[in-house]
Specification:
In the N-terminal section; belongs to the methyltransferase superfamily. tRNA (mnm(5)s(2)U34)-methyltransferase family. This protein is α/β, with parallel strands linked by helices. The protein is built from 21 helices and 31 strands. The radius of gyration is 26 Å and the shape is globular.
Length: 687
Amino acid sequence: MPSALDPAEPILSDQGTPYSPRYDDVYHSVEGGLAQARHVFLGGNGLPQAWQGREQFVIVETGFGQGLNFLATWQAWRDDPRRCARLHFVSIEKHPFTREGLAALHADLEELAPLAQQLQAAWPLALPGLHRLAFDGGAVVLTLALGDVQALLPRLAVGADAFYLDGFAPARNADMWDPVVMKGLARLARPGATLATYTAAGFVRRGLQAAGFEVSKAPGFGSKRDMTVARVPAERRRRHAPPSPGAWTRRHAMVIGAGLAGCAVTERLAARGWRVTLIDAHDGPARETSAHRAAAMHPHLSPDDSVLSRLSRAGNLHALRAWQALAEAGHPVGWHGCGVLQVGQDDEDTALQQRALAELGFPAEYVRWMSAQQAADEHGATVARGGLWFPQGGWVAPPDVCRAQLAMAGAAVETRFGCRIASLHRTDDGWQVFDEAGRPVAEAPVLVLANAHHASGLLPLRHLPIRRVRGQLTTLEPGDVARLGRWPDCVVTGSGYLLPRDGDGSARIGSSYEPDEGSLVERVETHADNLRRLSALLPDRSAAVSALDPAALHGYVGVRSVSHNRLPWVGQVADEAECERRAASLRGAHLRDLPRLPGLYVALAFASRGLTWAALAGELLASRIEGEPLPVESDLADALDPARLLLRALRHGQHGGDGQDAERDTGRDAEPDAGQGAGRPGQALSG
C-alpha cells in the first residue's frame, strides 16, 4: 500500500543549523554545510577532476536534505572549464522540504543564491516517485527520488560514477546505513566508481566492504578526525552491469513518425546533441491521431497507486515540466491549465475516488475533492455528484506541442515529410530504411519507430501486437454552446468528457471508443452517443442537449493504437529470432537478459494518453540510448518494455506462438481506470 510523503520542517537548532526533530540530528556540520559538502563529498570523490573530459558523469546521493551537496556540486561544475558535457545528480529523500521550507533554509546562501533560487522554482510537489529537473539547458539534471531509500534504491536504473552518503547519523537513522543499502549502492556502481561519507563508523565501513567496495579512511571535516572514502574495483565482474554511457560512433538517429511520440523523441535526442532525420508519410507533423485541435490531460488515480497510476503521475508531471521548458525557450505549446474535474459514473465509482484520496494522502495542489456545488459555483460544471479535482490538469492542441518540439530541436533535425517507409534493413553500422519504390531514404546507427499502428507493417514481431481503436469527437458550434447555458470553464470527464470553449466560442465533447471498422468518416450515430455522454455529465442540460440534431454536427475522427494492456511500448526491440533459438535457457530470464536488436527502439501504442506518455517516453528512450539514469523507476520502465509479452511467452514455453495467444493470456493484466475506465466510452483520443 502506498504511503504519503511526510515533508520536513525548516527548523533550526540553537546554533542556527537546520535540524530534524524526527531524527534529533542536524542536516550538516555546525561548522558549515557548504564547506562540508566541498571537503567530504566533492573532495572525497576526487571532484571536479574525476568528471573532466567525460561526456557524462553520474552522482548518486542518499539524503538530499536542503540540497547543499547538489548546489555545491552544480557550482563546481559551472566553475570547471573542463567539466563533463552532462552531469546527472540522482538523490533519494524520504522527507523532502516544501518549496517554501527550502527557500527559508536557503535565505543565507549568498554565493549560491542564484542556483538555489532556480532549484526552488523547479521544486516538485511532495509526491512519491522520481522527479526529473533540468538546469543549464539540460546539461545539469537532478533526478529526485522521493520515498524510502530501501524501497527506492532497488528500483533505480542508474549507472553511478560517484556516491554521496549523507543520511543522518547512523545512530539516529540506521535504515539509511543498513547493509542492504550498501549492496544496493554497489549494484549501481560503474567500474572505478568512488564513494564518500562524513562518518567513519566501523559498521558502515564493514557494510561497504561486504558489498564489494575497497574502503579507507581520510581526514574528516572540521572537528571530525576521520571520514570514509571507498572505491569499486575497475575489474569487478557482475552478471548484470549497471548502464554504461552510450558509445555511438555517430550520434545520428532516424525517427519514423512525426506525431506526439516521434516529435518528443526527436526533441529529446536533439537536446543531447544528436542529429535526427524525422520521416513521416504526411506533409507535416501531427497529421493523424495527433492532428485534433484539443486534447485533455490529467493523472490517473487508484487506491493502490497501481502501475498505471504511477506511470500516469510521472507522465503528467514530466509533460508539464517539459512544456514549461519549451515555453521558457520561446516555444510555447499553448497549454490551458484550467483544471480537470473527474466525476464518478455512479455511487460506487464516487466511493472509489474518495477512498483513493484518503489512502494516498497526496497534496491538495495535485488532487483534491470538489463537491457538485463547488463545481457549479466555481466552474459552471453542473455535475450530478462531486469528483476529483486536478488543479494542474487542462488541455492543449497536440499539433502545437509537436511544432514547439521541432522548433526547439532546430537545425539538429532534417525532416522528410511526404515519405512513406515500406521496409527496414539492418546494416553493419545500424539501420537503413526504404520507400515504397524500394529506394533508400536514410541510414543511421539508431532507428526509432514512433508511427503508431503503421509500425506493425515494418516490424512484424509476434509479441508486439497493436490493435486499432476508432474515436470520434464532436464539435459544438458557438450557437449550440450558447443555447446550453453557462459552459464549464474547466475540463469535465466521467462517462464522457467536455472541454472548455475554444477561442471562437465552440466546444468539443467526446469521445467514442470502438473497433476500427470501415472508413474513417464521421458517423451520425456516434455524434448522438457523444451528446448522450454530455447529458450524463451535465444532467440539468439534458433537455437542451436533446434538442441538438446529431445529423447537423461535425467533428474529428481518429484511430488510437492500443497494446494488450493499454500501456505503451517504449524501449529497445527484442531480437525475437535469437530469443527463440535460446528459448530453453531463457525460461527463467528477466527483461534485462533478453537479447535486443542493436539500435532499434520503439515508442508506440499510446492509446488514449498520448499527452501523458509522449514527453516521458521521449526522455526514457533518449536516456536508454545514452546510458543515462532513467527518469522512472525500473519496474515502471519494465512495464513499458516492448519485450514484456515475449518474456511471458518464454517463461510459459509459448515462444513459438503467433502472439495472439500471448495477447489473450495477458488480458488479465489490463488495469482499469478509476472513474474513467480504460476501454469505456468517453476516453480522450489523446490525454
